[in-house]
Amino acid sequence: MATVGEFAGFCAKTAKALPRRPFQWSELVKQAWFIASVSILPAALVAIPFGAVIALQLGSLSKQIGAESFAGAASVLAVVREAGPIVTALIIAGAGGSAMCADLGSRKIREELDAMETLGVDPVQRLVVPRVIAGALVGFLLNGVVSSVGIAGGYLFNVFMQDGTPGSYLASFAALGQVADLVSAQARAFVFGIIAALIACYLGMNAKGGPKGVGQAVNTSVVVSFMVLFAVNFVMVALYFQIIPQKGS
Fold it and tell me: Is the pLDDT of residue 245 over 60?
């Protein structure tokens, strides 16, 4: 409970430092580029089998119940609503978050953060805020990449491996899908980027015990981020279905 309270205080401190000037634009660009460079390729490679597996499962199910014309709609909805945000969350937390935690943890054990405070520089405003914004932006953009690659993978698998019809695969999406599905997925990816960055920065800035402590903080950040992101995803999806009426319901 003490850790949860400290983390809540850290989040409040970060939000308070957000509008403070001067803003570290160079650090934001540097961190956004770094997170994107370590996340795009793994996310794309993970999205392809995600889309293929979803197309395989839903294609077989749709044949069993005689609804082959809706296989495309179901596959695209599954990728856009769940696979895209989940893959984005895992990659941002696993690749970008671990790198943030290791960087700040190394600065902590070298006493760079204490030196910054001694010189009157707020480490949260200087280091954490740009990383949180970068995580949110990259998460938002990365979800679009993952969704596009996943849909393309599912399309190719359905058409060439399951003898599906290209036209019906794409046209059926309009029967069940809506713009709100994409908006919800993008919003979740944005929130996931913020949460992953906050957890990684908090654990990195509180690392103790030398290099071994930094390694433990990195491992903890990945595990905790996964747990929190899955829980937040469930809550946001539940709220979405309660607020937004679905087509065909």
Answer: yes
Query: pTM to 2 decimals?
Result: 0.86
Handedness of CA 239, 242, 243, 248 (dihedral sign): positive
Q: Give the separation between CA 40 and CA 164, rounded to whole angstroms.
A: 29
CB 35 within 8 Å of CB 97: no
Cα–Cα dist 112/104, whole Å: 9
pLDDT at 195: 92
Run of H or E including 133: helix 129-160
Residue partners of 110: CB distance under 8 A and separation at least 6: none
Helix H, strand E, coil C: the string for 176-231 is HCCHHHHHHHHHHHHHHHHHHHHHHHHHHHCCCCHHHHHHHHHHHHHHHHHHHHHH
Beta-carbon count within 10 A of 49 CB: 13
- Complete DSSP assignment for 58-83: HHHHHHHHT-GGGHHHHHHHHIIIII
Q: What is the pLDDT of residues 170-217, one digit of tens each?
A: 776 766 777 888 888 899 999 999 999 999 999 988 888 888 888 888
Residues contacting residue 247 through CB under 8 Å, at least 6 positions apart: 175, 176, 177, 178
Residue 127 near residue 23 (C-beta atoms within 8 A): no
Check: CB of residue 191 under 8 Å from CB of residue 138: no
Residue whose token pair is 């119940």: 65
- The packing angle between helices 84-91 and 210-243, to 10°, is 160
